[in-house]
Amino acid sequence: FLPVQVPDDKEKSDPVLFASRVRNLMAEALGIPVTDHTYEDCRLMISAGQLTLPMEAGLVEFTKISQKLKLDWDGIRKHLDEYASIASASKGGRIGIEEFAEYLKLPVSDVLRQLFALFDRNHDGSIDFREYVIGLAVLCNPANTEEIIQVAFKLFDLDEDGYITEDEFSTILQASLGVPDLDVSGLFKEIAHGDSISYEEFKRFAIKHPEYAKIFTTYLDLQTSHVFSLPKEVQTRSSVASNVVSPENHEESTSGKKDD
Prior knowledge:
Elements: H1 9-13, H2 15-30, H3 39-50, H4 62-69, H5 73-87, H6 97-104, H7 110-119, H8 129-140, H9 146-156, E1 164-165, H10 166-177, H11 185-191, E2 196-197, H12 199-208, H13 211-228, H14 232-242, H15 247-259
């Protein structure tokens, strides 16, 4: 038996402090490390096993992640389903670059490798479930706002008729990924319910697959940087042609041209 522990005044007002100290004493006596795994991690482990993933995939330190990233149980459990659908074809239940590309229905390219590296926090060449959840919350969800989705849709809608055709979709994705012979027919059919994509269809897909938001925003940033690196007399033409730069930036470019 370990000695009886009595909380001090500070620990009486904050029982978590007392629990933490007692836990550390127990771990020290047993010669084992302390982790932040909780009952929810056990539930995730069972769920991982049911999804034919290694049970340790569910050990994500749920409480720590949920507090830091403001995620709830249902959200993380839903991500586990998505993760399983990607990792099921891989050995060991982890996502490699090939599985990542196949899930996104895109080829392995420099842009995709960069996106994969942002998820792969320990740079071991694969993404575990914990890295996947953090990547979605930190990298993708902030980029997947209504405003970004609207701008991305306008970016694809080259003729501004309110619909994206497969040719328009292919043109922008080829430029985004730097893959001139990219076949997007499979991805296009997944989004569209006909010969073109409406805004509502595009929005539903973007919300369901936030990984694409990072690709879109990276392309938008590159296009904007390209426009503002041009001479002022070219900026206005480029901003209209790229259909990316905001009206405010367009006004700045126009006023700059007048000053010249």
